[in-house]
Design a protein that fits this description.
Layout: H1 2-6, E1 14-17, H2 22-34, E2 38-42, H3 56-67, E3 70-71, E4 77-83, E5 86-93, E6 101-102, E7 108-111, E8 114-117, H4 120-131, H5 150-164, H6 172-178, H7 190-196, E9 209-214, E10 228-234, H8 238-252, E11 255-260, E12 263-268, H9 272-285, E13 295-299, E14 303-309, H10 330-339, H11 348-358, E15 365-369, E16 372-378, H12 395-407, H13 412-418, H14 424-436, E17 440-443, E18 450-453
Parallel strand pairs: 1-2, 9-13
Antiparallel strand pairs: 2-5, 3-6, 4-5, 7-8, 9-10, 11-12, 13-14, 14-16, 15-16, 17-18
Helix pairs in contact: 2-3, 8-9, 9-11
Length: 454
């Protein structure tokens, strides 16, 4: 069991804690409860080696001491397994619909592999989201287990086993309960109907998607008439919505070719990975409480817009959207992760930016309103001008920009390779200066940091 968990490494849903530390344990429990929930592995290091000397009686006392620091009270359960060299313990922390803090007043959130304290404004935003309840876990009036599509359930079970690298030995319904698609009494939840319903729109009419391809750069033609050349209403469970929408987009995207070396390489109008991330994010993170509007994909001659009902969730803003992660629908997100539509939680925005800039396209444009979030991808391939900055740049910075122009991005390590005789701190300041001047955008954090042209 621990081998499968460790393959994911510490991150958004997993924390590895080799040694008992009551304060760190309390912080991690609060951070998980305020985010998507998660699992804390105690007693082994990141390589899976047992640290030994930790026993069940000690862990029970440790967990209770940590929980006493949580406000309001939290529940967490643990399991143990005996391995070579000692014991390993799994502490499971569910996502909470309440906002939790530590006894000293700090409110933390899980941010990839870290427990990050929130500011006052972030706490207010998160509290507002928490107070709206956990809509996807509510049962659906009139829905029954028989309303699930057995083919879709079987497909998910197969994908789950492939992702977990192990067989599911119990019934399919027990797995559906575990992921929140069924409640404890076997009744379909909102997440369950959206993920597995034969006709989800019969219960949640807002859950489909509308694809429209327009003939120009505006929704209307020159005479004011409807200006679209194709419209598709796409319904069904979420996996099918993603699959069918993707097929339509690929049919409508223009393709061309570029020559790299001696090879002719096909090039689509937009990088497929960026489109895929924008589509999956819209499906996974929309606010399904909002009725009267579905997800929209609009293709114009110069851009593609993916519009999702519902503003940014939790404490996420346009300023921190690249670095932070918060799921409005953790059960749906978790299911799409096991389905293979989400590669790694929290990295979708980074991938969109990276793919667009690597293709020589402008970074995605994000727009957030109280009841709407949209991503716009532009298809004009051009590089940001560099010559205008040369008068205020040193020679090292000019090398960095030439590198980015050629490869789409640069990391601190790559900068050190092209400037080997300069201290890492000087190079870091070079890149920070270009960010301050508005030439570069910093993406990611710590070891995962890289820079792209703004």
């Amino acid at each position: 069991m621990w081998e499968d968990l460790l393959k994911r490494r510490s991150g958004q849903l997993l924390a590895v804690m080799p040694e008992p530390d009551v304060d760190l344990l309390a912080e991690t429990i609060v951070a998980f409860a305020n985010a998507d929930g998660g699992t804390i592995i105690l007693g082994i290091d990141e390589t899976g080696k047992s640290v030994g000397g930790i026993y069940p009686e000690e862990v029970e006392s440790l967990l209770q001491d940590a929980l006493r620091q949580c406000r309001p009270p939290l529940e967490a359960e643990y399991q143990q397994e005996e391995i070579a060299g000692g014991f390993v313990f799994y502490i499971r922390v569910p996502r909470s619909i309440e906002l939790h803090s530590l006894a000293d007043g700090r409110v933390l959130i899980r941010r990839l592999g870290e427990n990050r304290p929130l500011s006052g404004e972030e706490i207010r935003h998160l509290a507002a989201t928490k107070s709206s309840g956990d809509y996807e876990s509510q049962t659906v009036a009139g829905a029954q287990r028989a309303d699930f599509d057995e083919e879709v359930v079987a497909e998910f079970l197969q994908r789950w086993q492939e992702k977990q690298h192990r067989l599911w030995a119990r019934s399919a319904d027990e797995l559906l309960m575990q992921i929140g698609a069924l409640d404890d009494e076997g009744r379909p939840t909102v997440a369950g109907i959206l993920l597995f319903g034969r006709e989800p729109q019969a219960f949640l009419s807002q859950s489909g998607l509308v694809f429209v391809k327009f003939l120009g750069t505006e929704p209307r033609g020159e005479g004011g008439e409807a200006g679209y050349g194709r419209r598709e209403d796409i319904n069904g469970p979420l996996a099918r919505v993603i699959q069918r929408t993707w097929a339509v987009i690929m049919e409508e995207m223009r393709t061309g070719a570029v020559v790299k070396g001696l090879e002719r390489v096909e090039q689509t109008e937009y990088p497929p990975a960026a489109v895929r991330e924008a589509l999956v994010n819209a499906v996974a993170h929309r606010d399904y409480r909002l009725r009267g509007r579905r997800i929209e994909v609009r293709m114009f001659t110069d851009r593609m817009e993916i519009i999702s009902p519902g503003g940014l969730p939790g404490y996420i803003t346009l300023d921190n959207i690249v670095e932070e992660h918060f799921s409005r629908n953790p059960r749906i997100v978790g299911a799409l992760y096991h389905w293979g539509y989400i590669e790694e939680l929290g990295l979708g925005i980074d991938l969109m930016i990276e793919e667009m800039t690597a293709a020589g396209l402008p970074p995605p444009h994000f727009r957030a309103e109280p009841y709407l979030f949209s991503v716009t991808l532009y298809n004009r391939r051009e590089r940001a001008p560099i010559a205008q900055w040369q008068r205020t740049m040193n020679e090292r910075q000019m090398k960095a920009l030439e590198y980015i122009r050629r490869y789409g991005r640069i990391t601190n390590r790559e900068y050190q390779v092209i400037c080997p005789h300069v201290s890492p701190e000087t190079l870091r300041l070079d890149l920070a200066d270009l960010v301050d001047k508005g030439v570069l955008i910093k993406v990611g954090d710590k070891k995962g940091t890289y820079y792209i042209l703004k």
